[in-house]
Amino acid sequence: MLQQLADPNLWLAAAGQIFFSLSVGFGVILVYASYMGPRDDLLLSGLTASATNEFCEVALGGLITLPAAVAFLGVAGVAGKGTFGLGFNVLPMVFSTMPLGSLFGALFFFVLFIAAITSSLSMLQPGIALLEESLGITRKGSVGLLGTLTALGTGFVAWFSKDLKALDTLDFWVGTFLIFVLATVQIILFGWFFGIERGWRELHAGAALNLPGWFKPVFRYVCPAFLIAIFALWVARNVFGWDPSGGGTQGSPYTKALFVDGDPVAWLCIGVVTVVAAGLAATIGGSRRYRDETE
Amino acid sequence: MQPAGLAVMIASVGTVTLLFAWCVSKVLAQPAETAAHLHAPELHTPDMDRD
Q1: pTM value?
Q2: Which of B2, B10, B16 would best serve as a mutation to test chain A binding (most A beta carbons within 10 A)?
Q3: Distances from the Cα of A145 to the Cαs of A137, A138, A140, A151, A248, in angstroms?
Q4: What does the alpha-carbon distance between residue A285 and residue A277 come to, in Å, rounded to a whole number?
Q5: How far apart are CA A169 and CA A172, in angstroms?
Q6: In whole angstroms, what is the distance from residue A7 CA to residue A24 CA?
Q7: CB atoms near residue A285 (< 10 Å)
Q8: What is the dihedral of CA A112, A57, A74, A170, to 10 degrees?
Q9: If you average pLDDT over every residue of chain A, what do you get?
Q10: How far apart are CA A111 and CA A103, in angstroms?
């Protein structure tokens, strides 16, 4: 277990998972925050939302899916399987053996579909607002443009669907790595530029709870140092080959696909992400509205 | 399951369950005027007028 804990890939994956799960580190949290009034309770509602999420993931999801996976596939079959494999390979096996399994299976995946759609709305909203404001187009035009871009991206993933290579590669670099990087930038901006005292006042405006004072150095020093250390160890492990776990763990298959195997699909995925990021940067940079507001 | 694994599982599941229960009890214990600040208001944004 200690050997696994010395693996920076595990920490990066865990951090990326919890940031994605709590919608921290990318545009979704900005959408949710925009619905809060100045006197709304950020502290208790944020803590309750996080605790509910963790309860459902760890206590409900973990205790249902993992034992079922072990029962059907054995420990060796579960090892290394991601949430995708557990959800879409193991649960159908469970449903196929239980009474009324077809009904419960259909209901489960329908509810999962609804959950994904509702999350997608909040994920797309920052992009819709960005295109609407920067290009000066209507909301319908913005939705149409973003829908076209999303369809092209989905088409790319579907075209390179062999072994789920494109989906897996984009999921790691965008859904884990970039979210981790953005969350690190955000906590540094919060702790060192926005200001802890200012953040403390915002946090406690209308709050029913009082956060203990020792959280201030946690926000300012511990969180940034912890995330930067994980990032530095991840780079040392996967780019420079240094292994703090003593050779007991493997390097990231995603960096291996890029720099060792030279996988063309992996490089295409990086190209797509770069083109989209450059396009967004050019859109923001060329926007008169954003320039005027900055000045 | 090894004793260490069982201990980690009980600790993690127990912690999140207790935290969840404590948060729910805190929310439900709020007086009506404070509870109004625990959910978002009905918003009317400018883009709704344009469309």
Answers
A1: 0.81
A2: B16
A3: 10, 11, 9, 10, 47
A4: 12
A5: 5
A6: 23
A7: 10
A8: 60
A9: 85
A10: 12
Structure confidence by residue, pLDDT tens digits, A8-45 = 888 888 888 888 888 887 778 888 888 787 788 888 88
Domain edges within chain B: 3-50
pLDDT one-digit tens code per residue, A163-218? 788 888 898 898 889 999 999 999 999 999 998 999 899 888 888 888 899 999 99
Residues A58, B16 contacting (CB under 8 angstroms):
yes
Greater pLDDT, A134 or B37:
A134
Cα(B10)–Cα(B13) distance, integer angstroms: 5
Q: Which of A40, A52, A58 sits opposite B12 (nearest CB)?
A: A58
What are A94's two structure tokens? Answer: 């469970």
Q: Are A180 and A20 in contact (CB under 8 A)?
A: no
DSSP letter (8 states) at residue A211 = -
Max intra-chain CA distance, chain A = 65
* CB contacts, 8 Å: A63 with chain B: 13
Letter for the amino acid at A115?
A: A
pLDDT digits 0-9 by tens, A50-81:
999 999 888 888 787 777 777 776 777 666 66
Query: What is A235-257 written as a DSSP string?
Result: HHHHTS---TT-S-SPPPHHHII
Rounded to whole angstroms, the Cα distance separating A26 from A181 reads 10
Task: Flag if A41 and B37 touch (Cβ within 8 Å).
Answer: yes
Taking the C-alpha atoms of residue A25 and residue A8, their distance in angstroms, rounded to an integer, is 19
Distance from CA of A156 to the nearest CA of B (A): 32
